[in-house]
Design a protein that fits this description.
The protein has two domains: 179 residues, D-Maltodextrin-Binding Protein, domain 2; 195 residues, Periplasmic binding protein-like II (D-Maltodextrin-Binding Protein, domain 2), CATH 3.40.190. Strand 4 and strand 5 form a beta hairpin. It is of the alpha/beta class.
């Protein structure tokens, strides 16, 4: 194209040159001012050549390949974790970011008891965390705080990978809403030294309420300020109702049935009366204590034992590496009974980055990470692969592993509005422990308030 367009221009230039040359001899001499006038025609024609020449660069611009688009900014997701967890968890977050440079994880560390309230507040404000830790999945479902993971999870694989305990608090009405991080049934955390010095063996599977009362009495010396049994009776700590439920179940009672509270049965009254009977063997002021204070009393040789989730094995050992903690199984009452719970990862339904949030959860709950996490922190793993490791075949972890498969174990918090209902329960349990209400009055009042809420479901 370039060659064809320039030939006519050259021809024109040549003709103009011949015309000018032929006319020059016969032209009447003109004043000097006319010469420039003729001369101006040549530049006028000559300007066409550059005009044509500009087509060459236009064609040449088609040759270079288009430049690459600038790299996209990494997607940022917020992860609300339990601040009480060991910091090794943060190392796993860094590993994830290294493997996924297109995803940045903003960590928000919040005390475990405040996680639910913060999730509610941030959801109402329209800026919840993308990923959060949950031990109240049913409550989160009923308040539309958690996204079902059906699009991400193969249910058959889920049920194969995780223990029954792990699955129980990650699902609600057979829908998977969360992926387990740790799981276990309640056990007794025992001060090995206090029992050894008193010549008392660590209780074995099958020990009874009477055994607990007898051992607690033997280990109590009020003059020295030592007590055989610890119980949380505060109206603000989740351990208050958590530590009551196993005794309710062991008395033959139930928490909820046909969507109604039934813990105010004779079995419930029996369980509460039994715990109140142990008050002489408990530290004074237990009705205002939280679990952190209970741990402090145990590691300072003031309390011989208390019962709670097996995650306290790791919590005690990580905070007090020189303290020797032993583990005993739950007691047996009229029947075996216990509760199981733990922590799981969920996604907010308001998250704008659900795919990235799932990728993070999938990494954090892989068998490799769960094995490393639970072994490093002495937590009970929710996945079968980790439980098969040697560490969980020997005490103290083997006792906690065995507790999960005992008869009468049920998942905790498997009812809507569990956070609100549990807050009601602990308020009335505290009233009974303080002697402000009889066990029957306290449980009846709690059941009445529970049923007013449950009626909505």
């Amino acid at each position: 194209m370039f060659r064809k367009s320039i030939q006519p221009v050259l021809a024109i230039l040549m003709i103009v040159s011949f015309v000018l040359a032929g006319c020059a001899p016969v032209a009447t001499p003109a004043p000097a001012t006319e010469a420039p006038a003729v001369a101006t025609e040549a530049p006028a024609v000559a300007t066409e050549a550059p005009a044509v020449a500009t087509e060459a660069p236009a064609v040449a611009t088609e040759a270079p390949a288009p430049t690459e688009a600038p790299a996209a900014e990494p997607v940022e997701i917020t992860y609300m974790r339990q601040a009480d967890n060991p910091d090794i968890e943060l190392d796993f977050v860094k590993e994830f970011e290294a493997q996924n440079p297109n995803i940045k994880v903003k960590v928000d560390s919040v005390p475990a008891n405040d996680n639910y309230n913060k999730l509610v507040l941030t959801t109402n404000a329209g800026n919840p965390p993308d990923v959060f830790m949950s031990f109240w999945t049913a409550s989160a479902v009923s308040n539309k705080l958690i996204h079902p993971l059906t699009e991400f999870v193969d249910q058959a694989d889920f049920e194969k990978r995780f223990t029954t305990a792990g699955q129980s608090y990650a699902k609600y009405q057979d829908v998977i809403y969360a992926i387990p991080w740790r799981a276990g049934a309640s056990v007794f955390l025992v001060n090995c030294k206090m029992l050894e010095e008193a010549g008392i063996e660590i209780p074995k599977l099958g020990w009874t309420w009477k055994d607990l009362a007898d051992i607690s009495a033997k280990l109590t010396n009020k003059e020295k300020g030592t007590y055989g049994f610890g119980l949380v009776g505060s109206s603000t700590d989740y351990a208050t109702e958590w530590q009551f439920w196993p005794f309710l179940l062991q008395a033959g009672g139930k928490i909820i049935e046909n969507n109604k509270a039934v813990f105010n049965s004779p079995a419930g009254v029996k369980a509460l009366e039994y715990l109140i009977s142990l008050k002489p063997n408990m530290p004074e002021g237990f009705t205002s204590m939280d679990l952190n204070q209970m741990v402090d009393l145990m590691v300072s040789d003031k309390v011989a034992m208390f019962e709670d989730g097996p995650w306290f094995i790791g919590i005690i050992q990580s905070g007090h590496p020189d303290f020797k903690v032993c583990v005993a199984p739950m007691t047996v009452g009229d029947v075996p009974g216990n509760i199981t719970g733990g922590t799981a990862f969920g996604i907010s339904p308001l998250s704008k980055h659900k795919a990235e949030a799932w990728k993070f959860i999938d990494f954090m709950t892989s068998d490799d990470i769960l094995i490393r996490w639970n072994e490093a922190t002495n937590n009970m793993p929710p996945n079968v692969a980790a439980l098969e490791r040697p560490m969980f075949q020997e005490p103290p972890m083997s006792v906690a592993a065995e507790a999960v498969v005992q008869p009468g174990v049920i998942p905790a918090n498997q009812y809507p509005e569990s956070d609100a209902l549990n807050a009601i329960m602990r308020t009335y349990l505290q009233a009974a422990y303080l002697g402000q209400m009889t066990p029957q009055e306290a449980l009846d009042k709690a059941a009445e308030e529970w049923n007013a809420i449950l009626a909505k479901y």
